[in-house]
Amino acid sequence: MTNQTATATSTKYDYRDATKTILGQLRRERDRQIIAGRFGFGMAKRQTLEKIGNDFNITRERVRQIEKAAVTKLRSLDFAELSRANEVITTVVRDFGGVALISDITAILAAPETDAPYIIFLSLLSHGVDLIDDDDHLRAAVGLLPIFGRSQIVQLIEEVVAAVTAYGKPTTLVKLRSKLASELEPETLEQLMRVSKQLAYFDGKWGLVAWPEVNPKSIRDKTYLVLARHGRPLHFSDIAHHVRGLGTNKRNVTVQAVHNELIKDGRFILIGRGIYALSEWGYTPGTVAEIIASVLREESAPLHKDEIVRRVLMKRQVKTTTIILNLQEKDQFVRTAKATYDLKEK
Prior knowledge:
Elements: H1 4-10, H2 15-23, H3 29-39, H4 49-56, H5 60-76, H6 80-95, E1 99-101, H7 102-108, H8 116-125, E2 129-132, E3 141-144, H9 150-167, H10 173-177, H11 186-195, E4 199-202, E5 205-208, H12 219-230, E6 234-235, H13 236-244, H14 255-264, E7 268-272, E8 275-278, H15 288-299, E9 303-304, H16 305-313, H17 320-329, E10 333-337, E11 340-343
Antiparallel strand pairs: 1-3, 2-3, 4-5, 6-8, 7-8, 9-11, 10-11
Helix pairs in contact: 1-6, 2-8, 3-5, 4-5, 6-8, 9-11, 12-13, 13-14, 15-16, 16-17
């Protein structure tokens, strides 16, 4: 998602230089280095309290105190670079509907993912937004104050997750929006759902991250998803072809691996030579003879072979001659009249 206003506002904004200028407001070089280490500026990952404490021969608690004091001091200052940072961050977040992932802001500022710590730092110092830290449930994001503070965002996400859970299956953003008590703009709702680690998006629909329909991980999940998306039976080689194209991880999946999953999982029903369907579509397992038997058992009366063929073809993709040969050659069926058959023993 991009926006012309946000892009124009952030054009040529040098977030690295801004961070350097802001850190220059701290008198002690040690304090500047501690902030740089704790946020991870230019590093593969942020440094721990213990690592920084060892480097400066101070306790972990002292490092924590210095970090807190430095951030508090910088937030209290009133100078041009901080005002500019606040303007850039709030404009970008506003144009994302009031909630933006740190990764969104980073992308708008044309920054590599490794420079996200600079954006987090500038967001923390900005008075117009509230920073949401990355944790087990939420992705790092920023909310526009006063409407989208952290507590409001958490509450709204809980409402959205509850609505998805109650719906019980993957759904579109439009349908989900109609189920919510809170009135949210589509772009805001989408951003809230992206912030939540409990939700996942796939093929135009949202659902719980535990649902394989929106978060397929195994070959079995992807096999089910391929059939569900197509809504009709497919040959196992075709299923394998579509499985390879699912998601961003397009690793080579063998036809045999897919076929093995089709054989093992009761959700997949063999209905023809190499052709599989989903049991939820009304298909049941069994040979052609067993399907014929079930048709006659349901009728409780003899049936003409043409009617038997018609009903079996609704359950199996086989040749008409295969059905007729089963009627004529299997001992369990008996001809009761011309071209009319029944079960020998009911």
